[in-house]
């Protein structure tokens, strides 16, 4: 299945507003956009870095649903600040994590959550698990 490609589709209330948000916050490049009756987006594509995503307005067949994406970036603090400036709210502040990542999570105005992340240590799976086991609670 090496020819398999997965393209996530976001279902939101306000697809055009979401596309503008992703353009401002993440430098998203819009692609095709198709609208149905009343101008509601039935399908649109956008690129973030090397990834392609699709999006549509929620309707009676597809209710708005949250999602969680990880953005692997060189500077999580800068990307997190751009998301916040564009209107996202912090779920977990960006910080150095015990499992060897600088990472945090933000929720955009459309309910989608974005983890911004950069590896800071090269740890084995056992080392990560040991560190997580040592954390309280």
Word description of this protein:
There is one protein chain. This protein is an alpha/beta fold. The protein folds into two domains: 65 residues, Signal recognition particle alu RNA binding heterodimer, srp9/1, CATH 3.30.720.120; 65 residues, 2-Layer Sandwich (Signal recognition particle alu RNA binding heterodimer, srp9/1), CATH 3.30.720.110. Helix content is 24%, strand content 39%. It contains three helices and eight strands; from the N terminus they run E-H-E-E-E-E-H-E-E-E-H. The strands form two sheets. It has a four-stranded mixed sheet, covered by helices on one side. It has a four-stranded mixed sheet with strand order 5-8-7-6, with helices on one face. Helix 1 runs antiparallel to helix 2. The longest helix is centred in the N-terminal third of the chain and has 12 residues.
What is the number of helical segments per DSSP (H or I, 4+ residues)?
A: 3
Report the major sheet.
Answer: 4 strands, mixed
Calculate Rg over CA atoms.
17 Å
Q: If you consult CATH, what is the topology of the largest domain? A: Signal recognition particle alu RNA binding heterodimer, srp9/1
What overall geometry do the principal axes of the alpha carbons give? elongated
Mean pLDDT: 93
CATH architecture of the largest domain: 2-Layer Sandwich
Structural category is: alpha/beta
Q: Count the E strands.
A: 8
Q: Strand content of the residues, in percent? A: 35-45%
What is the topology, as strand order, of the major beta sheet?
A: 1-4-3-2
* Top-tier CATH class of the largest domain: Alpha Beta
Number of domains: 2
Order of helices and strands: EHEEEEHEEEH
Distance between the termini: 41 Å
Low-confidence runs of at least 5 consecutive residues: none
**Share of helix among residues?**
10-25%
